[in-house]
Amino acid sequence: MQTLYVSFRPNECRSEAPVHLDLRGDWSSYVDEVPRDLVAINGVGSLESMERSKRHHHEKAQLLYSARGVINCEVDDGVWIVPPQCAIWIPGSLPHAAFGSGEVECICLFVAPDAAANLPVKCCTIAVSGLLQHLLVRASELPERYEIDGPDGRVVSVLLDELAKAPVEELCLPIPSDPRLKHLAGLLVSSPADHATVAEWACRVALSERSLSRMLMEEIGMSFGRWRRQLHVILALRRLSAGQTVQTVALDLGYESASSFVTMFRKMVGKPPGRYLLERQEAVPIPRSDPPPKSRYCRR
User: Fold this and answer.
1) Distance of alpha carbon 164 from its chain centroid, rounded?
2) Per-domain residue ranges for the chain?
3) Same CATH topology for 5-171 and 176-278?
4) Are the C-beta atoms of residues 234 and 171 closer than 8 Å to each other?
5) Which of 188, 194, 190 has the alpha carbon at shortest distance from 254?
6) With a threshold of 0.90, does the pTM exceed it?
7) Per-residue pLDDT tens digits for 142-166
8) Which CATH superfamily groups domain 5-171?
9) What is the pLDDT of residues 54-76, one digit of tens each?
Protein backbone atom coordinates (compact mmCIF):
# COMPACT_ATOMS: atom_id res chain seq x y z
CA MET A 1 0.00 0.00 0.00
CA GLN A 2 1.34 3.42 -0.92
CA THR A 3 1.73 6.12 1.69
CA LEU A 4 1.12 9.85 1.46
CA TYR A 5 3.94 11.41 3.45
CA VAL A 6 3.52 14.66 5.30
CA SER A 7 6.47 16.60 6.60
CA PHE A 8 6.39 17.33 10.30
CA ARG A 9 8.91 18.67 12.78
CA PRO A 10 8.42 17.11 16.22
CA ASN A 11 10.60 18.68 18.89
CA GLU A 12 12.15 15.34 19.83
CA CYS A 13 13.73 14.94 16.38
CA ARG A 14 17.36 15.99 16.33
CA SER A 15 17.76 15.44 12.58
CA GLU A 16 17.71 18.56 10.41
CA ALA A 17 15.46 16.76 7.94
CA PRO A 18 11.71 16.92 8.56
CA VAL A 19 10.00 13.86 9.90
CA HIS A 20 7.56 12.09 7.61
CA LEU A 21 4.40 10.69 9.09
CA ASP A 22 1.76 8.50 7.52
CA LEU A 23 -1.36 10.65 7.10
CA ARG A 24 -3.43 7.66 8.18
CA GLY A 25 -1.67 7.58 11.55
CA ASP A 26 -3.16 8.91 14.78
CA TRP A 27 -1.16 12.13 15.16
CA SER A 28 -4.16 14.42 15.72
CA SER A 29 -3.72 14.44 19.51
CA TYR A 30 -0.09 15.48 19.11
CA VAL A 31 -0.88 18.77 17.39
CA ASP A 32 -3.05 19.83 20.34
CA GLU A 33 0.00 19.49 22.59
CA VAL A 34 2.16 21.90 20.56
CA PRO A 35 2.15 25.26 22.46
CA ARG A 36 1.64 27.45 19.41
CA ASP A 37 -1.42 29.03 17.80
CA LEU A 38 -0.57 27.36 14.50
CA VAL A 39 0.93 24.01 13.54
CA ALA A 40 1.54 23.38 9.82
CA ILE A 41 1.94 20.14 7.87
CA ASN A 42 3.11 20.09 4.27
CA GLY A 43 1.81 17.04 2.42
CA VAL A 44 2.80 15.97 -1.09
CA GLY A 45 1.49 12.77 -2.59
CA SER A 46 1.92 11.28 -6.04
CA LEU A 47 -0.99 8.94 -5.59
CA GLU A 48 -4.19 8.14 -7.40
CA SER A 49 -5.92 9.11 -4.18
CA MET A 50 -5.10 10.18 -0.66
CA GLU A 51 -5.99 7.41 1.77
CA ARG A 52 -9.23 7.95 3.65
CA SER A 53 -8.49 8.93 7.23
CA LYS A 54 -10.38 7.46 10.17
CA ARG A 55 -13.08 9.64 11.71
CA HIS A 56 -11.29 11.76 14.29
CA HIS A 57 -11.24 15.17 15.94
CA HIS A 58 -8.85 17.53 17.69
CA GLU A 59 -9.19 20.63 19.84
CA LYS A 60 -7.43 22.82 17.28
CA ALA A 61 -9.37 23.80 14.18
CA GLN A 62 -8.00 22.45 10.89
CA LEU A 63 -7.46 24.05 7.49
CA LEU A 64 -6.81 21.73 4.54
CA TYR A 65 -5.54 23.57 1.45
CA SER A 66 -5.35 21.76 -1.89
CA ALA A 67 -2.63 22.88 -4.28
CA ARG A 68 -3.35 19.96 -6.63
CA GLY A 69 -6.03 17.31 -6.69
CA VAL A 70 -9.33 17.30 -4.84
CA ILE A 71 -9.64 16.76 -1.10
CA ASN A 72 -12.94 15.45 0.25
CA CYS A 73 -14.08 15.85 3.83
CA GLU A 74 -17.02 14.15 5.51
CA VAL A 75 -18.74 15.40 8.66
CA ASP A 76 -22.03 14.32 10.19
CA ASP A 77 -24.14 16.87 8.32
CA GLY A 78 -22.30 17.24 5.02
CA VAL A 79 -19.81 16.14 2.42
CA TRP A 80 -17.35 18.88 1.46
CA ILE A 81 -15.11 19.11 -1.57
CA VAL A 82 -11.88 21.11 -1.85
CA PRO A 83 -10.80 21.73 -5.47
CA PRO A 84 -7.33 23.13 -6.25
CA GLN A 85 -6.64 26.58 -4.77
CA CYS A 86 -9.40 26.13 -2.23
CA ALA A 87 -9.32 25.02 1.38
CA ILE A 88 -11.72 23.56 3.89
CA TRP A 89 -12.02 24.93 7.40
CA ILE A 90 -12.95 22.32 10.03
CA PRO A 91 -13.81 23.80 13.44
CA GLY A 92 -12.08 22.38 16.49
CA SER A 93 -13.57 19.25 18.13
CA LEU A 94 -15.71 18.45 15.05
CA PRO A 95 -15.45 14.73 14.09
CA HIS A 96 -14.46 14.35 10.43
CA ALA A 97 -12.74 12.12 7.88
CA ALA A 98 -10.77 13.19 4.79
CA PHE A 99 -9.63 11.58 1.55
CA GLY A 100 -8.31 12.70 -1.82
CA SER A 101 -9.08 12.39 -5.53
CA GLY A 102 -6.32 12.49 -8.15
CA GLU A 103 -2.72 13.35 -7.36
CA VAL A 104 -2.82 15.30 -4.13
CA GLU A 105 -0.63 18.13 -2.90
CA CYS A 106 -1.86 19.80 0.24
CA ILE A 107 -0.97 21.94 3.21
CA CYS A 108 -2.66 21.30 6.52
CA LEU A 109 -2.84 23.85 9.32
CA PHE A 110 -4.03 23.35 12.87
CA VAL A 111 -5.19 26.57 14.52
CA ALA A 112 -5.83 27.15 18.23
CA PRO A 113 -9.48 28.05 19.05
CA ASP A 114 -8.56 31.51 20.37
CA ALA A 115 -5.82 32.29 17.83
CA ALA A 116 -7.70 35.16 16.17
CA ALA A 117 -11.08 36.84 15.98
CA ASN A 118 -13.57 36.33 13.13
CA LEU A 119 -12.33 32.89 12.09
CA PRO A 120 -15.10 30.66 10.69
CA VAL A 121 -17.27 28.96 13.28
CA LYS A 122 -18.75 26.36 10.92
CA CYS A 123 -17.30 23.91 8.43
CA CYS A 124 -16.88 25.69 5.07
CA THR A 125 -14.92 25.71 1.82
CA ILE A 126 -12.72 28.79 1.40
CA ALA A 127 -11.35 30.37 -1.78
CA VAL A 128 -7.60 30.99 -1.37
CA SER A 129 -6.11 34.20 -2.79
CA GLY A 130 -2.58 34.46 -4.18
CA LEU A 131 -1.37 36.17 -1.01
CA LEU A 132 -2.93 33.51 1.22
CA GLN A 133 -1.33 30.78 -0.92
CA HIS A 134 2.11 32.27 -0.34
CA LEU A 135 1.40 32.60 3.39
CA LEU A 136 0.30 28.97 3.59
CA VAL A 137 3.48 27.82 1.86
CA ARG A 138 5.56 30.01 4.19
CA ALA A 139 3.72 28.63 7.22
CA SER A 140 4.48 25.06 6.10
CA GLU A 141 8.20 25.89 6.35
CA LEU A 142 8.05 27.26 9.91
CA PRO A 143 9.71 25.38 12.73
CA GLU A 144 7.26 23.64 15.02
CA ARG A 145 7.99 26.02 17.92
CA TYR A 146 8.45 29.19 15.94
CA GLU A 147 9.35 32.40 17.75
CA ILE A 148 6.02 34.02 18.60
CA ASP A 149 7.38 37.59 18.86
CA GLY A 150 9.72 37.29 15.85
CA PRO A 151 9.25 37.35 12.06
CA ASP A 152 7.67 33.89 12.04
CA GLY A 153 5.06 35.01 14.54
CA ARG A 154 4.21 37.99 12.34
CA VAL A 155 3.75 35.67 9.34
CA VAL A 156 1.26 33.66 11.39
CA SER A 157 -0.62 36.83 12.40
CA VAL A 158 -0.97 38.01 8.80
CA LEU A 159 -2.04 34.53 7.69
CA LEU A 160 -4.81 34.44 10.30
CA ASP A 161 -5.97 37.92 9.24
CA GLU A 162 -6.20 36.80 5.60
CA LEU A 163 -7.94 33.60 6.57
CA ALA A 164 -10.59 35.48 8.56
CA LYS A 165 -11.63 37.52 5.50
CA ALA A 166 -11.32 34.79 2.82
CA PRO A 167 -14.53 34.30 0.75
CA VAL A 168 -16.57 31.13 1.22
CA GLU A 169 -17.51 28.86 -1.72
CA GLU A 170 -20.62 26.67 -1.66
CA LEU A 171 -19.01 23.30 -2.41
CA CYS A 172 -20.86 21.12 0.06
CA LEU A 173 -23.51 18.44 -0.19
CA PRO A 174 -25.52 18.89 3.00
CA ILE A 175 -26.71 15.65 4.59
CA PRO A 176 -30.08 15.90 6.38
CA SER A 177 -30.52 14.38 9.83
CA ASP A 178 -33.86 12.65 9.14
CA PRO A 179 -33.17 8.91 8.56
CA ARG A 180 -35.34 8.81 5.43
CA LEU A 181 -33.52 11.77 3.90
CA LYS A 182 -30.16 10.27 4.85
CA HIS A 183 -31.19 7.10 3.07
CA LEU A 184 -32.20 9.19 0.05
CA ALA A 185 -28.77 10.86 0.07
CA GLY A 186 -27.15 7.43 -0.05
CA LEU A 187 -29.34 6.43 -2.98
CA LEU A 188 -28.44 9.59 -4.89
CA VAL A 189 -24.71 9.12 -4.30
CA SER A 190 -24.80 5.47 -5.39
CA SER A 191 -26.91 6.20 -8.51
CA PRO A 192 -26.08 9.75 -9.67
CA ALA A 193 -27.22 9.05 -13.23
CA ASP A 194 -30.75 8.09 -12.11
CA HIS A 195 -32.91 11.01 -13.19
CA ALA A 196 -36.16 9.77 -11.71
CA THR A 197 -38.77 12.41 -10.87
CA VAL A 198 -39.05 13.95 -7.43
CA ALA A 199 -42.23 11.94 -6.86
CA GLU A 200 -40.43 8.68 -7.72
CA TRP A 201 -37.51 9.46 -5.38
CA ALA A 202 -39.97 10.37 -2.61
CA CYS A 203 -41.80 7.08 -3.05
CA ARG A 204 -38.54 5.15 -2.65
CA VAL A 205 -38.12 6.52 0.88
CA ALA A 206 -41.79 6.27 1.83
CA LEU A 207 -42.57 9.99 1.56
CA SER A 208 -44.94 12.04 -0.52
CA GLU A 209 -43.46 14.51 -3.00
CA ARG A 210 -44.83 17.38 -0.92
CA SER A 211 -43.37 16.02 2.33
CA LEU A 212 -40.00 15.42 0.73
CA SER A 213 -39.81 18.97 -0.62
CA ARG A 214 -40.92 20.48 2.69
CA MET A 215 -38.45 18.44 4.76
CA LEU A 216 -35.52 19.29 2.49
CA MET A 217 -36.24 23.00 2.71
CA GLU A 218 -36.57 22.79 6.49
CA GLU A 219 -33.37 20.78 7.02
CA ILE A 220 -30.95 21.99 4.35
CA GLY A 221 -32.65 24.97 2.72
CA MET A 222 -32.56 23.45 -0.78
CA SER A 223 -35.06 22.08 -3.24
CA PHE A 224 -34.59 18.48 -4.35
CA GLY A 225 -33.43 19.63 -7.79
CA ARG A 226 -30.75 21.94 -6.42
CA TRP A 227 -29.60 19.28 -3.93
CA ARG A 228 -29.15 16.75 -6.73
CA ARG A 229 -27.34 19.29 -8.94
CA GLN A 230 -25.02 20.11 -6.02
CA LEU A 231 -24.18 16.42 -5.78
CA HIS A 232 -23.44 16.35 -9.53
CA VAL A 233 -21.06 19.32 -9.19
CA ILE A 234 -19.17 17.59 -6.38
CA LEU A 235 -18.92 14.28 -8.23
CA ALA A 236 -17.91 16.07 -11.45
CA LEU A 237 -15.08 17.99 -9.77
CA ARG A 238 -13.75 14.79 -8.24
CA ARG A 239 -13.72 13.00 -11.59
CA LEU A 240 -12.51 15.89 -13.73
CA SER A 241 -9.61 16.51 -11.34
CA ALA A 242 -8.72 12.83 -11.67
CA GLY A 243 -8.36 13.27 -15.45
CA GLN A 244 -11.74 12.20 -16.84
CA THR A 245 -13.13 14.16 -19.79
CA VAL A 246 -16.21 16.39 -19.64
CA GLN A 247 -17.93 14.06 -22.10
CA THR A 248 -17.31 10.99 -19.94
CA VAL A 249 -18.40 12.72 -16.74
CA ALA A 250 -21.54 14.10 -18.38
CA LEU A 251 -22.63 10.66 -19.60
CA ASP A 252 -21.77 8.98 -16.28
CA LEU A 253 -23.97 11.49 -14.47
CA GLY A 254 -26.88 10.83 -16.80
CA TYR A 255 -26.80 13.94 -19.01
CA GLU A 256 -27.79 13.60 -22.64
CA SER A 257 -24.79 15.59 -23.84
CA ALA A 258 -21.67 17.38 -22.63
CA SER A 259 -23.30 20.73 -23.43
CA SER A 260 -26.27 20.08 -21.13
CA PHE A 261 -23.89 19.13 -18.32
CA VAL A 262 -21.76 22.24 -18.91
CA THR A 263 -24.90 24.40 -18.78
CA MET A 264 -25.85 22.91 -15.40
CA PHE A 265 -22.31 23.35 -14.05
CA ARG A 266 -22.14 26.99 -15.19
CA LYS A 267 -25.46 27.80 -13.51
CA MET A 268 -24.34 26.22 -10.25
CA VAL A 269 -20.72 27.44 -10.10
CA GLY A 270 -20.72 30.50 -12.36
CA LYS A 271 -18.17 29.12 -14.84
CA PRO A 272 -17.91 26.12 -17.18
CA PRO A 273 -15.94 23.20 -15.70
CA GLY A 274 -12.92 23.58 -17.99
CA ARG A 275 -12.43 27.24 -17.11
CA TYR A 276 -13.16 26.63 -13.42
CA LEU A 277 -10.40 24.01 -13.14
CA LEU A 278 -7.95 25.82 -15.42
CA GLU A 279 -8.04 28.89 -13.18
CA ARG A 280 -7.07 26.64 -10.29
CA GLN A 281 -4.04 25.01 -11.90
CA GLU A 282 -1.58 27.85 -11.35
CA ALA A 283 -1.16 27.36 -7.64
CA VAL A 284 1.93 28.48 -5.73
CA PRO A 285 4.17 25.37 -5.74
CA ILE A 286 4.64 23.58 -2.45
CA PRO A 287 8.29 22.85 -1.63
CA ARG A 288 8.91 19.12 -1.92
CA SER A 289 11.11 17.07 0.32
CA ASP A 290 11.70 13.38 -0.32
CA PRO A 291 11.03 10.98 2.54
CA PRO A 292 14.26 10.38 4.50
CA PRO A 293 15.91 6.97 4.64
CA LYS A 294 14.13 4.53 6.92
CA SER A 295 16.85 4.72 9.56
CA ARG A 296 16.23 8.45 9.94
CA TYR A 297 12.54 8.18 10.79
CA CYS A 298 11.63 9.66 14.16
CA ARG A 299 9.54 7.31 16.25
CA ARG A 300 7.17 8.69 18.84
Assistant:
1) 17
2) 5-171, 176-278
3) no
4) yes
5) 194
6) no
7) 888 899 999 999 999 999 999 988 8
8) Jelly Rolls (2.60.120.10)
9) 777 788 999 988 887 778 888 88
